[in-house]
Every structure is written in C-alpha cells, then in structure tokens.
Design goal:
It is a single chain. This protein is α+β, with helices and mostly antiparallel strands and about 160 residues long. The chain folds into two domains: about 30 residues; about 120 residues, Sandwich (Immunoglobulin-like). The protein has a seven-stranded antiparallel β-sheet. The longest helix has 28 residues. The N and C termini lie far apart (about 70 Å).
Amino acid sequence: MKKYLGIILLSMALFGCQSNVISEGLSSLVAAPEIKGVALKSFSVEEQRVVFDVTLYNPNIYPLPISGLSGDIELNQIAIGSMAVNADEMIGAQETQVVTLPIQLDTKAITSAATSIFTTQQANYSFKGSIETAAGTLPISKQGKLSIGDILSVL
C-alpha cells in the first residue's frame, strides 16, 4: 500500500513540474499587450471614481483573450487608487482596442494629487498592473502626462 501511495505522490509531483514548465513556456511565447494611449474619460470626486479609456495593442500574431486587468495608478507620484476588473475581451492579432477602466479613488490622495496638479500645472500619471490572459498573468506599465485641458474638460 505504501508503494502505491509513493508512486501516486511521485506521479503528482512530476505532473506538477511538467505543467509548470508548460505554463512558463506559454508565457514566454506570449507578448504582453502594449498600452498605446490613455485618455481621461470621466472624473467624479463625489463617486470617488475616475474612468480611463486605455488603448491596448496586441503585438502577437494571434488573437489574445483577456479575462481581467488589475493595477494601481499614481498621479504626480501620489497613489490615488487601484482597480481590478474582470473582462471578457478578445484583442485581435496585431490590432488595437480601447478598454474602459474604472478606478476607485482614495479621497485624501486625490485631493493631494489635485492640489499638486493645479500647483505644478502638470498631471503625470503612472500605471503598474497586470493583464490576465489564457497564457497567464502578463505585467504592464505605462507612464505619461494628461493635459490640463483634458482634466478641466471632465470636471
């Protein structure tokens, strides 16, 4: 009986190693989508929410299913919020697609960021997160600048 249990445990361990190797192999074959643009769609202090339209480009030669996005965003180096969105999107091979991302805000942080924006007349953002795909989790990041006109147009 111990012999059979030992064989079963060894088989499970080897299967676990093999599936891990397969998973790592797939991840190395899949390039993460690139963020080509970020546009501020809406901003509401009352709802403690900001919505961005993010243009994603799939550099792969095959369509890429996306099941989720998550990450944190900073404005002028102040962490203002985070997001975790379940998605059921498919980005075509070597195509771009706009994905709308709602982000819950930290009220105190957004007040500090807004003060910083109007004081410095700059709105530098950074996003660090990940995209969930069929091949696994792919890290993404983007830095850029929002124009003051864009910010004022949604207030």
